[in-house]
Amino acid sequence: RRKIAVMTSGGDSPGMSGAVRAVVRSAIALGHDAYCIYEGYEGLVQGGDLIKKMVWEDVRGWLSEGGTLIGTARCAAFRERYGRLAAAKNLILNGIDGLIVCGGDGSLTGADLFRAEWPSLLEELVAKEELSQDQVEPFKTLNIAGLVGSIDNDMSSTDATIGAYSSLARICQAVDYIDATAASHQRAFIIEVMGRHCGWLAVMSGVSTGADYIFIPEKPPGEGWEKQMCDIIARHRRLGKRKTIVIVAEGAIDRDLKPITSDYVKKVLVDVLKLDTRVTCLGHVQRGGTAVAYDRMLATLQGVEAVRAIVRAKPGSPSPMIAITENKIIRKPLVEAVKMASVAEAIKNKDFDQAMKLRDAEFDEY
Ligand code: F6P
């Protein structure tokens, strides 16, 4: 009988609660004990009441919920060795030997580091007499599995992260609302969307709403983009379009890594095309609300698979990240996935081809 814990970490996303539900229930259904670690890595470091044994009914109604009902936090202590030592001790004191982390690339990188350090953490705990050799003996290996939860869809080794499609739906709904007022006044709207270093939400919402122009971090526009954008928008207007929608990813930059701000894009449209222009920053609205059907399905199937991966792990086998590729739920080595998540690094080095490659995307110039 295993003791399997689940936690959510980093920015919340719709579907995280559904993933927790799936982990708790499939652990119990397979005859194991299920635990929730509240408030992300903070709960792991602090222990006590933040680590709670769960029963079947505890997660009733969680499937459709937005956000994460077990809380999340950005935890500074876990980034330091002393925090990870406290976390290891709390897991052992609770008898937990399987940990499922649902979070973005930063949270999964933390999980992978924790796994790699595990033997040395135990040694240090014994050396410092925080735990006895007998206490650590049964916990020689800690099985970890990663679930990717983030609205950004910024993990390259999986087609979709839990929450991305809910956020996309929310953005499309907001743009539809704006469309009505924009067309009434023949206005232009610059709509800023989240995504950190990832342009997925911007690209997909642009495609889904028929936006006129899109800015993303991975493919900064070349010099003279202002004229190109204005020419395109002017052509659309000549074709009879009564409104203009430009989507700007929050991480949009030019080729010198200078941010392309919504206010600057607005200024260009006002100065060059004399369009009556407004800026709408969607903010955290796009992270809230209930999970769409796709995220409920993804969270459930991946939560079940994460428990299976923990239960069936062979000693010494690498920690898996649960992915979806070409509609199949599969396991990938967490360490590889985390390595592949270094798009921000590629952008910082102005290696935009590599950034696109890491996103499994290639766009032809047209
Ligand atoms: O990673 C999810 C995300 O919503 C990003 O899109 C955004 O950059 C960031 O989190 C916002 O973080 P916070 O909620 O801490 O302001």
Automatic annotation (TrEMBL):
The active site is at D152. It is found in: Cytoplasm. Substrate binds at S150, I151, D152, R187, M194, G195, R196, E250, R278, H284, V285, Q286, R287. Transmembrane segments: none annotated. It comes from the Eukaryota. Residues 1-366 are annotated as: N-terminal catalytic PFK domain 1. Mg(2+) binds at D105. Residues 3-310 form the Phosphofructokinase domain. ATP binds at G11, R74, C75, G104, D105, G106, S107. Catalyzes the phosphorylation of D-fructose 6-phosphate to fructose 1,6-bisphosphate by ATP, the first committing step of glycolysis. Homotetramer. Belongs to the phosphofructokinase type A (PFKA) family. ATP-dependent PFK group I subfamily. Eukaryotic two domain clade 'E' sub-subfamily. This is ATP-dependent 6-phosphofructokinase. It comes from Drechslerella stenobrocha 248. The chain holds residues 209 to 574 of 976 of the full protein.
